[in-house]
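JOB MANIFEST
job_type = single_chain_structure
chain_count = 1
residues = 144
[input]
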Amino acid sequence: MDKTTLDNILEKHKAQPVGHGYIDIIVSRDNYKDFISDLVTSGYKIDSVSWWEWCEDKKQNEYGLGGPESVFYKGWFSEIPVNVDDFSVSADTTKENIIQEILSKIETKTISFSDETVTFKASNWLTPAIWLDVPDDWRNKYSA
């Protein structure tokens, strides 16, 4: 597990970290499966998933609080104010089972707002962001 490999995985899957480190790595719905598979297969530990609203072009957000412009796509992301989904797997769990558990948690995500409930499957704007357990001093290339 090294930083260069991680940065290459992020670039390959057009995954964008928010802030300086490697939490809140927003990944498009088109790329999340392969991104998670590459991370786990390469030995990176996924701690959590947070949730973002994808706002294409200059579209106004409906659910989120605000966030960064995408460096890969035309639009921006707005953080949804809900708790992150944490993962806890035992040491003897296979990488394949870890991948399946994470994908299942993402694909079955439901968020209840005061006047509606949204699901990952039915809401193409609902976007996951991956939190990794890496050294605190690692900084991504997108940080200022």
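[summary]
The mean pLDDT is 94.
The two ends are 24 Å apart (CA to CA).
exit_status = 0
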